[in-house]
Amino acid sequence: MKNTEIKQLSNKELTERVNDEKNMLIRMKINHTVSPLDNPLKIKYSRRLIARLKTEIKQREIDGKMNS
Fold first, then answer.
1. pTM to 2 decimals?
2. From CA 6, how far away is CA 14, in angstroms rounded?
3. Chain CA centroid to CA 4, Å
4. Residues with Cβ < 8 Å from 48, sequence gap 6 or more?
5. What span, in angstroms and rounded, lies between the C-alpha atoms of 33 and 45?
6. Quick one: pLDDT band at residue 68, thresholds 50, 70, 90?
7. pLDDT tens for residues 13-61?
8. How far is residue 44's CA from residue 11's CA, in Å, rounded to a whole number?
9. Which pLDDT score, from 0 to 100, does residue 64 have?
10. C-alpha angle 63/1/38, rounded to 5°?
């Protein structure tokens, strides 16, 4: 997911997406300990996507406070 796609999401969609990605990351980590994933870099990409989503949420909070 690119940053332009992230910016187009609503606040509700962002929080839902963060929760979904966190759950998927936990499942991937557990599956990876049991049997190695085909592409272990998916864990890294998932962590970074969560960080980008959280950054966008935080940025919107900051912008909202400054405008008020």
1. 0.88
2. 8
3. 14
4. none
5. 17
6. low
7. 999 999 999 999 999 999 999 999 899 999 999 999 999 999 999 999 9
8. 24
9. 86
10. 140
The yes-or-no verdict on residue 10 having pLDDT over 90 is yes
Of the candidates 65, 42, 23, the residue with the CA atom closest to the CA atom of residue 15: 23
Token pair 């909202």 in the structure block, residue:
64
Number of residues assigned to the chain: 68
Which long-range contacts (C-beta less than 8 Å, at least 24 apart) are formed by 16-21?
17/53, 18/50, 18/53, 18/54, 18/57, 21/46, 21/49, 21/50, 21/53
Residue 63, burial from CB neighbour count under 10 angstroms (0-12, 13-18, 19+): exposed
On the CB side of 46, CA atoms within 13 Å amount to: 17
